[in-house]
Specification:
85 residues, mainly alpha, membrane, transmembrane helix, GlsB/YeaQ/YmgE family stress response membrane protein
Amino acid sequence: MALLVLIVLGTTLGWLSSIIARTEEPGEILRQAAAGLLVALISGLLVNGGVVLGGLSLVALGVALAATVGALVLYHAVIRRQVGA
């Protein structure tokens, strides 16, 4: 169950970040969703003790949420800097 929750959380946050940033290129939207998915999986599973098929602790969910949001904000800051330069 933890795996499913983290997949949905990361992908949804990546997709929402593409909406907030007004990204229109399909490849860029997929990269943001993939980045959100990867960060949520890694951070959530590390904090959850590597449990994939069991339950997800509230702390692991919070860490996955915070890490994903932070990574996507950093991603957009770096992309904006590269495009603006």
